[in-house]
Amino acid sequence: MSSFEFPWQRMAAGANLLSPTGSLGVTIFEEITNLAVKHQAINLGQGFPDTDGPQVFKDIAARGVSGDLNQYAPGAGIPALRQAISDHQKRFYDLDVNPANEVVVTTGATEAIAAAILAFVNPGDEVITFEPFYDSYGAAIGLAGGTHKTVALNAPDFQPDIEALRSAFSERTRLVVLNNPHNPTGTTFGKKLLAEIVALAMAHDCIIISDEVYEHLTFGVSHIPIATLPGAWDRTLTISSTGKTFSFTGWKVGWATGPAELVAAVRSVKQFLSYSSGTAFQPAVAEALAADTGFFSDFANDLGERSEVLAQGLEAAGMTVYRPQGTYFIVADVAPLGFDNALELARQMPEMIGVAGIPLSVFCHEDGAERTRTLMRFAFCKKRELLTEASQRLSKLVARHGA
Ligand code: PMP
Ligand code: GLN
Questions:
Q1: Is residue 332, in this structure, part of any structural domain at all?
Q2: Confidence band, pLDDT 50/70/90 cuts, at residue 2
Q3: How many independent structural domains does the chain possess?
Q4: Do 232 and 98 fall into the same domain?
Q5: What percent of the chain stands above pLDDT 70?
Q6: Cα distance between residue 227 and residue 382, in whole Å
């Protein structure tokens, strides 16, 4: 256990916002976005699209606001949305989810993650994540007083070493938190690895939390929800949200699905974090989830093409590029340009060349930060012209360094 005086400090430290000497930062996303705004840089840092999702869904939300959808929604979510989430899990993954008690709607995936971790982690329990890890996992584990154990994902393919994964489990392991497709590396996890995780979770009797917010954003590979594997459903909470799939990151409507007793636990905690959220958005999200299958595949294909535009730009700028299989993000190594610290470079880049990116080290503990020291994450959920312009600006990094 840490030596911090208050839970909030453990939470901030869990997401690398609080140094041992006590200085407090904001999230790296906020820090870099602020720098991008200040220097009018192209923001390939924080993961949000520069084009909103379809107008038809916005219109539904707008009608809700100008009509009568302005009071609390039911705590678990409006019935139409819970049904739509259930239908979506059936249509895409052949999963049977009871909308009455196996779904809870949350304030974004962030709340579902926090509620799930707070629901199940006692002080001193161990929670395993891969590393780099999305910042909110470390924050929620810290708040719960858990011990955060990590398993490294290393370039070039960002797949874990199975022996390292096995040895991360112990009799104290309570949860394993998975993010597939994976932010920030853009990797995806295949059936063999997922089956190994299920087997380990069964052997150590722990719960799996699977954050699948990028479930529809894969390029040339199919997403496999871990809950579809034999033996997994009973111990898995699957989390997703509206933000990434439909390009509405500001709506903050998310959900968790799983067996009734796990969902009831999440709902119990969620009730006292937000109670309910986004009444007017919920019918719009229900409609979006029912969109034609072509909507989902067209968006993924288009996004995959844009990832390639940026990949080529980063390569032309002299970086080593690790092409993603999914998500909004691409990882590139700035070492070939002569930079040995991506965190320092990320703080300078908005002013230096007018482009912002996120260093991978901020998604890591100390050892992982060292391993990822020269890696930078760039978001490609932007218009092609912007990605091309960003690539041109990035090519100046060579000139600057060589100057
Ligand atoms: N998990 C991951 C891996 C993410 O990248 C994000 C950012 N969208 C979230 C969770 C949070 O999702 P939301 O905005 O729906 O809270
Ligand atoms: N998920 C977004 C990203 O990884 C950030 C969301 C946030 O700012 N918390 O860029």
A1: yes
A2: low
A3: 2
A4: yes
A5: 98
A6: 31
pTM reported for the whole predicted model: 0.96
Q: Which residues form the pocket of ligand 1, taking CB atoms under 6 Å from any ligand atom?
A: 47, 108-110, 134, 179, 183, 211, 213, 241, 243-244, 249, 252, 254
Say if CB 372 and CB 132 are below 8 A apart: yes
d(CA 171, CA 203): 10
> Ligand 2: which of 43, 48, 249, 377 to mutate, most ligand atoms within 8 Å of CB?
48
Q: What domain range includes position 326?
A: 7-52+296-395
Residue 166 lies in a domain: yes
CA-wise closest residue to 258 among 400, 116, 384:
116
Contact residues of ligand 2, CB 6 A cut-off: 27, 29, 46-47, 183
Ligand nearest to the CA of 213: 1
CATH code, 100 = 3.40.640.10
Rounded CA-CA distance 116/318 in Å is 42
Q: Are 237 and 267 in contact (CB under 8 A)?
A: no
For residue 99, pLDDT beyond 70: yes
Q: How far does the centroid of ligand 2 lie from the alpha carbon of residue 46, in Å?
A: 5
In this prediction, residue 246 has a pLDDT band, given cuts at 50, 70 and 90, of very high
164 and 142 fall within a common domain: yes
Residue 70 shares a structural domain with residue 165: yes
Residue 22 — pLDDT band, cuts 50, 70, 90?
Answer: confident
Q: Which ligand is nearest to the CA of 254?
A: 1
Ligand 2 centroid vs 248 CA: distance in angstroms?
A: 13
Ligand nearest to the backbone CA of 215: 1
Residues 113 and 228 in one domain: yes
For ligand 2, the distance from its centroid to the CA atom of residue 144, given in whole angstroms, is: 21
Q: Do 18 and 65 fall within a single domain?
A: no
Q: Which atom of ligand 1 is nearest to the CA of 242?
A: 15
SS3 221: coil
CA gap 82, 88 in Å, rounded: 10
Q: What CATH number is given to the structural domain containing 333?
A: 3.90.1150.10
Instruction: For residue 385, report the distance from its CA to the centre of ligand 2, in Å.
Output: 23
Side chain identity at 128, as an amino acid letter?
Answer: I
Please tell me whether residues 329 and 194 are part of one structural domain: no
